[in-house]
Each structure stands twice: as C-alpha cells, then as structure tokens.
C-alpha cells in the first residue's frame, strides 16, 4: 500500500472535492474522475500567439493550457502536456511521432498516451498550407484543386491512423479532433468564397473519419467571424490572440462536458440509487453497459471494479510495472487500472486476474477497505462471516464505517454472492463519504 500511504493527504483532499459535487445543485458541474490530458498537433496546441507588428514570435499556454487550467480549477487534473505539439506539424508528423515513440524531455509519447484519458489533436491545416500559394502582401491565396484533393485524402487517412494508434495504446482514451477556422479572414470576398469551399471539404473530411473511428469532432468553423480584429488581430498571421485561444478552448471544453448524458432506462428519476449512479456516470467514474442501460442488477466485473476505483483514487503519474496476469495483456481496455490497483496492493498478483469474473461481496469488502483505508473498529455479528474467515476484517471495516448493514432480515452478509452494479455504486460513494467524515 506504499502508493496510497505516500499520498494519504492528497487522497483525502481529492475525495473531499469529489464529495462536494454530490451536494451541488444539478445544474452545477461536479468534480469527477481524474483527467490525464495530452495535446497533440501543430502550433495551436503548442500555443503560438499572433505576432505583433514587430513580428516577434511569442508562445503562450494556448488553448490546451487553458483547458488544463479549467480541469485544474475543477480539481480533476492529474497530468497535462503539450510538449509533443510542434509549430508547423502536419498530420504525418503527428502520426510519425506516435509510431516512432518520440521522446521529449525524458518522456516517451507512447507511455504518455497509455496514461492519457483525454487527447486533443489539431492537425491538418499545415498539410494544406504546404500546397497553397500565399501572398499576404497582395492578399491572395491560391490552392490547386488537384493538389488539395490529394492532400485532403491524405489528411483523412492520417487522422484515421492517428486515432487507431492512440486507441491501440489506450482504448479508454477520449479523443477529440479539431476542425479549423478560416485563417485568412482579411481576404477579398472573391478569395473568401473559394477558401470557404476548400475549408468545408477539409472540415467535412476530418469530421467524417473522426466520427467513423470513435473520436469526437470539434467544429471550429466560423468561431472568429464575429470579430476577426479581436480573435485574429494580425492579417499577416494565422494564429489567434489570447481571446481567440480562449474561444478555441471553450469549444473543446463544451464538447467534453456535453458528451456524457445521463439517460438510462433502468435508472429513472426517483430510483433508489439514482443520485449515486447519476453522479458517478456524469463524472466518468462508471459507465453504463450500453448507451441506455446502466445494468443495475448485473454483476460488476473485476475489471470494471478496477476501472471505477482507478477513476476516483489519485495515483502517481508513472507507468506501472506489468503485474503479469496472463489474461490481462497491455492491450486490455482496463490494463492501466488493473496494473495500478495491483501495484497499490488492492489486488494481489497471481497467474490470472479473471477480469470478466463477477466481484463477490467479500471481494468488494476487501477492495473498498484497502482502497479507502477503512478501519475495523467494531466487530460485525453476521452469521455467515465468522472469526477466522478471510473476509472478516474487511467486512468488519465496512460495517464499522456504516457502509453496509448486511441483510437485516436474517443478519447475514452473504459474502459469496456477487455484487451488482448498483450496489457497488452505492458502496463506492459511501466509502468516499466515510473518508470525508474522518477529516471533518
């Protein structure tokens, strides 16, 4: 349990902020699972600012830094980097970096992506700019339609590969692919008309392949039209102002916040565990078994248990050692969660993890006790959990913390029964509430 002991205070603080969300009004965005954010792409992700009249190149936090600040203020940012984003990068550059496992400041990109659960990609504009004839002084932009067509096809192919490469490394990552705004709003009306057509084709292609491969497309078309002087102040520079970067960030944040919608048919308003399940789902701690079913009565699997705990608890940012389970390869969608929980001592090393096996109530008592460092201060009197039984200390811990009362009808805990998903949601929130109570 070294990993948790070293971050006990952090653990309590994170849970404290997490629990505040339960008490907030429904319209308030609550704090949820940790965000590991990686921004890939071109100068927009790197943060190149529109140059002033003297032409001095300036770098700011950009839209990705603003997004990171947003997560930080919500108390959910676990890690963030835009160090792999480079000015002038094309889709091919981004793809090559992932495949070659580029290293920056001692960190390799593939390792970074394995941890990331939020990835933004801004790439494609430079692909087009490379085949464009641009004369800013004369305010003309010319792009050969044949060259553009070939380039646009290559962009779509590369973005498809980028998404798939990220998904291979981390199937749980949420990937957001950016569309593009008009970088030349000061052109003549005739020039703008031609540019508009190509911009529509560029964004349409990016949107199509993004959605087809499970990524979220973030539409940026026309976002600066209301005030080009404010958002793109230098007619000779395609980069935004600070206000422009804020607007870009807002679109990414809105896309992220609106993605989760609570609409499970088996958890209607007024349902016994509605508040707990709704909170955990909307804050990406747990997910439904389908888009319309939470699976309230289904047994929760050991893999889903690990993922939910990983989503709540704070961990060091390092890549964990492979725990060596023969049935949990690194390509497994819950590999990172299982590896981290095993490293922390919540799960024990063995030949197999049995990720799809249901979690028993005895196992549930153990993993919650270890994860939240619960203490047994009272001995339970359940008829089916006796002194000497291995679950006894863990069941006593849950009983002492009033996380469970067992089955009062016959004074049993039923340790060998499986834990269903609604029960686990309830016990998870109660465990966190117990930790909050210890620091009040």
TrEMBL record:
InterPro entries (alphabetical): Cell_Envelope_Struct_Comp (IPR051465), SGNH_hydro (IPR013830), SGNH_hydro_sf (IPR036514), SLH_dom (IPR001119)
Superkingdom in the source lineage: Bacteria
Keyword ATP-binding on entry: no
Domain SLH: 260-323, 325-377, 378-440
Keyword hit for Signal: yes
Family annotation (Pfam families): Lipase_GDSL_2 (PF13472), SLH (PF00395)
Keywords: Signal
Record PANTHER family: OUTER MEMBRANE PROTEIN ALPHA-RELATED, S-LAYER PROTEIN _ PEPTIDOGLYCAN ENDO-BETA-N-ACETYLGLUCOSAMINIDASE
Protein name, as recorded: SLH domain-containing protein
């Amino acid at each position: 349990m070294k990993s948790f002991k070293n971050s006990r205070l952090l653990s309590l603080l994170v849970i404290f902020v997490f629990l505040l969300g339960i008490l907030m009004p429904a319209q308030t965005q609550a704090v949820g699972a940790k965000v590991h954010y990686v921004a890939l792409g071109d100068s927009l992700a790197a943060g190149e600012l529109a140059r002033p009249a003297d032409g001095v190149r300036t770098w700011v936090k950009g839209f990705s830094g603003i997004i990171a600040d947003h997560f930080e203020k919500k108390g959910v940012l676990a890690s963030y980097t835009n160090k792999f984003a480079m000015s002038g990068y094309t889709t091919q550059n981004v793809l090559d970096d992932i495949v070659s496992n580029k290293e920056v400041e001692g960190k390799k990109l593939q390792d970074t992506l394995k941890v990331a659960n939020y990835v933004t990609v801004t790439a494609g504009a430079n692909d087009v700019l490379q085949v464009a004839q641009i004369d800013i002084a004369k305010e003309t932009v010319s792009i050969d339609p044949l060259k553009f067509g070939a380039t646009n096809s290559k962009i779509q192919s590369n973005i498809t590969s980028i998404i798939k490469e990220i998904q291979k490394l981390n199937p749980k990552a949420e990937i957001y692919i950016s569309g593009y705004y008009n970088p030349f709003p000061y052109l003549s009306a005739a020039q703008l008309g031609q540019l508009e057509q190509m911009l529509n084709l560029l964004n349409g292609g990016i949107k199509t392949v993004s959605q087809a491969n499970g990524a979220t497309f973030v539409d940026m078309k026309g976002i600066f039209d209301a005030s080009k002087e404010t958002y793109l102040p230098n007619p000779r520079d395609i980069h935004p102002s600070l206000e422009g970067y804020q607007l870009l960030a807002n679109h990414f944040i809105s896309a992220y916040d609106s993605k989760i919608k609570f609409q499970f048919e088996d958890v209607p308003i007024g349902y016994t565990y509605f508040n707990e399940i709704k909170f955990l789902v909307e804050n990406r701690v747990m997910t439904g078994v389908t888009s319309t079913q939470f699976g309230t009565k289904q047994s929760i699997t050991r893999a889903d248990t690990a993922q939910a705990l990983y989503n709540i608890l704070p961990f060091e940012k390092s890549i964990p050692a492979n725990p060596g389970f023969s049935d949990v390869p690194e390509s497994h969608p819950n590999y990172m969660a299982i590896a981290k929980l095993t490293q922390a001592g919540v799960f024990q090393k063995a030949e197999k993890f049995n990720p799809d096996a249901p979690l028993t109530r005895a196992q549930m008592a153990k993993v919650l006790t270890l994860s939240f460092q619960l203490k047994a201060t009272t001995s339970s009197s359940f008829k089916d959990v006796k002194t000497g039984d291995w679950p006894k200390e863990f069941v006593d811990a849950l009983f002492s913390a009033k996380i469970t009362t067992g089955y009062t009808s016959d004074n049993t805990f039923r340790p060998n029964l499986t834990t269903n998903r609604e029960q686990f949601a309830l016990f998870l929130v109660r465990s966190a509430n117990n930790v909050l109570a210890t620091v009040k």
